[in-house]
Amino acid sequence: MIHSRTNTSAATLTKNRTEGSITSESGMCVTCVDGCVGMCEIGKSAYRGHEVIYPQPFGVITAAAEKKYPIGYSHFSIMGTATGAHGIEADSDKAIFPAVDLEVRIGRDRGLRFRLPWLIPGIGSTDVAKNNWEGLAIGSALAGTALTIGENVAGMDPEAAIEDGRVQDTSDLKRRVGLYKSHQRDGYGAIIVQANVEDTRLRVQEYAIEKLGVSCVELKWGQGAKDIGGEVKLRSLEKARVLHERGYIVLPDPTDPGVVEAFRRGAFTEFERHSRVGMADEESFARRVEELRSAGARNVFLKTGAYRPADLARALAWSARYGVDLLTVDGAGGGTGMSPWRMMNEWGVPPVELHSLLFQFADRLARKGVKLPPIALAGGFAFEDQIFKGLALGAPYVKLIGMARGPIASAMVGKTIGLGIQQGELPVYVERFGKTKDELFVTATALRRELGDAAFDELPTGALGLYTYYERLAQGLRQLMAGNRKFAMEHIRRDDIAALTRDAAEVSGIRYITEVDAAEVEKILGA
Q1: What secondary structure does DSSP assign to 301-328, as a single string?
Q2: Do the domain assignments include residue 454?
């Protein structure tokens, strides 16, 4: 099986000359001809160099890995049953799928309440996040789910006031927090402010706690998309200089006269802004958790990426030791905004393997009596069956699933439909459902009734797109849980899924499908 696509991906806006005859390892055309203008990734790299590392076109896409991992969540099947019920009376008139309770409680004194068992784990300073924030924030708040403001938002804000190396005021971060908080309902959900190295130096989280009323903050060790800090592209020399002055790594150097002259004559059109890699150690980790608690953070989270197993063990052990309120573990192959695309494919521990190791480590600590933090899994989740499988694989320690690309896509589609409504130019396959918000979005009638006409009419269609996508996921998940006779989240167990391959069974510790219920079968049939 070919596990990666090399030199042939749409992510780099390239293609091979001999598309039907390509070598599997290098991705090159079998015959590379002198005189070819260089349509492939190697060819484009010959004249655009480092620009081809990143997925394109920047700013209007979310991008992810194309690698086919040896084991994925599709290698598991959900097990239903014909008997009993958990979390509700075993009565056919009561044990119906709409009765499934998807609410999750975590945090200090279990004070954080989420209507649905998923969250958006971190959408930061990329254009695709900023341009769709209205839909993401309002939709998440209305749904009662958590949303994380990712790294570098304050540092990237040209209107941010920074004095003595510390953020004093912002425009973008203030707007992002405000959009979410102004649409929260009945205390459900949470807005979370994440920080990387630069954010910590700027004391962004302290500002968010003290000035914006944020009570949930998150430390960040990395993500499934990349092994380095966050990065974006900058099309403005002025902005490149501002970020250079604020301490970011900006390439090429926007203060170099030769670079400035090359930019102005059009030799290149974009600067790159990079964040630094963090240096995790236990002492500084413990100190930072305590600093955030002292600053007023009620809940402190940690998000880590697809690093090697020892780093996963550190994340789990230190989170337990210092009272972290949620640990999010993001498997390889992820991607939301801009990330080095080959890195998406070729670094890190894949989701099933990483999540299986996480369960093993968590179970080992739990058996010693260690109090573990609630855990969220991330890494390619997009639909209700995947959500169920992730919750089951990590049960009982995993409480939430992290998703970003699916929510962004739904918000983008909702926004695009709104533009089509305004311009009277909806595609035929959309227009067949109607021409207005109320006709097109299946959740509109209920939301209008709940919010009132004035509030509903103000809702951006990006928010309706996200909210309606979540409604689909919720109903689908309720159906799957009802089929397993699990009517509340705490009843999901590892034996609610079965491995379809021996490899998947060996890696995950989940039983192979023909071996499920072996002991019970013996009792029924008689030894």
Answers
A1: EEEE-S--HHHHHHHHHHHHHTT-SEEE
A2: yes
Q: Is residue 189 part of a domain?
A: no
Residue 305, in any domain of the structure? no
Q: Pick the more confident residue, 130 or 485.
A: 485
Q: Tell how strand 216-220 and strand 190-195 pair up.
A: parallel
Position of tokens 């159906």?
479
Report the DSSP beta bridge partners of residue 192.
148, 216
φ, ψ of residue 363 in degrees (nearest 5) = -65, -40
Contacts of 514 by beta carbon, 8 Å cutoff, 6+ apart: none
54, 340 in Cβ contact below 8 A?
A: yes
> Using CA atoms in the order 65, 71, 73, 74, what is the torsion angle rounded to 10 degrees?
100
User: Range of 38's domain?
Assistant: 10-53
Is residue 55's pLDDT more than 80?
A: yes
Beta carbons of 117 and 102 less than 8 angstroms apart: yes
Q: What is the pLDDT of residue 5?
A: 65
| Count of structural domains within the chain | 3
Looking at residue 371, what DSSP letter applies? -
Cα 42 from Cα 40, distance rounded (Å)? 6
| Rounded alpha-carbon distances, angstroms, from residue 14 to 27, 60, 343, 516 | 12, 17, 17, 46
Query: What Cα–Cα distance (Å) separates residue 329 from each residue in 40, 222, 314, 319, 409?
Result: 35, 9, 12, 12, 22
Question: Using alpha carbons only, how large is the chain's radius of gyration in Å?
Answer: 24
Point out which residues pair with 304 in neighbouring strands.
Answer: 329
Could you tell me if residue 206 is inside a domain? no
Least confident among 54-63, 321-330, 380-389: 54-63
pLDDT digits (tens, 9 = 90+) for 475-508: 999 999 999 999 999 999 999 999 999 999 999 9
Q: CB of 387 within 8 A of CB of 117?
A: yes
pLDDT of residue 527: 66
pLDDT in tens, 253-274: 999 999 999 999 999 999 999 9
